[in-house]
Amino acid sequence: MSRSAREYDESDIRVRPSRRGSRPRTKDRPKHEGAVTARVVSVDRGRWRTIVEEGTGSERAVTAMRARELGRSPIVPGDLVGLVGDISGRDGSLARIVRIQERSSFLRRSADDDDPTERPLVANVDLMVMVTAVADPEPRGGMIDRCLVAAYVAGIDALLVLTKTDLRSPDSFLTAYAPLGLEHLRTRRETPEEAARSGHPGSPGIIGLEDLRERLSGRVSVLIGHSGVGKSTLLNALVPGTDRAIGVVNDVTGRGRHTSSSALAMPLPEDDGWVIDTPGVRSFGLGHVDPEELLEAFTDLAELAESCPRGCTHLEDAPDCALDSQVEGGGAGTAGPARLRSYRRLATTLRKNDPWEL
User: Fold this and answer.
1) How many domains does the chain have?
2) Between 82 and which of 56, 99, 283, 332 could a Cys-Cys bridge form, CB atoms 3.0 to 4.6 Å apart?
């Protein structure tokens, strides 16, 4: 009898086993009342390094993974999270992050101004420390302006730290930020004579470090700056033993080489403050910022813009824009032309999605 004429029975039917479990699905997520609070200090390839029992004297580092119920929710250094599972911190142990506590602040950036994808940086910080060198590499006001906008949108304070002031006076560079009342500090390496007097001639210290330490005390701060500006040098001095890699500046491009590859939160010694180091950045996109918020972030220009006609865009081609006459007039307390140019470049970019290089 041919196969086509044969009668089939149940042995000819193959049933694939179901891949789904037998447990009924539910929309109710577990509450995890017993979750332990921890602070996220670093992220590496789908694993989060956290600190448990912060401030108790029994702190320990615990590695954790993200629980499935959190989906793709971003978890960044500075986040306070809830852990369950093995929180012993022993080698090979792995806990689960089941909850992200409400954030007091959330600092973000985008790759470019025309990129709407947000890149979360850090959470729960209350101070942004913008580190820039006055020489080698040359300071870039555009980067500082962008950081100030991001800090304004995130609702955090800002501090400008000028490094390598032994190479050049920062006075002319600071002129553009004088109307803002932007708090700033100056730092430099000790001279050989100063190092000899301070008792460590073979390892010069940093003048201005104690002032910076005082400003960071009791706060959660994030350090941001281009590669090569001295950010890692400051971190290594603030938190001895950190050993963040120190980069050099390319003689041809004048830019620093990326050294730190990921953000890292560190407790300040003998203090209840934290400082978060971020990788050296070459761009700080503001694609997540509403163009209407931009002028509010330039507080010095926003005050002058109150004299503009209704509906003024404040761009270069805006008719009767009061910013032109008032900035050119150079009245006391007014912003300078460099600040106006920076605002207009950013405003044009955000409105037209036309990225420009820092």
Assistant:
1) 3
2) 99
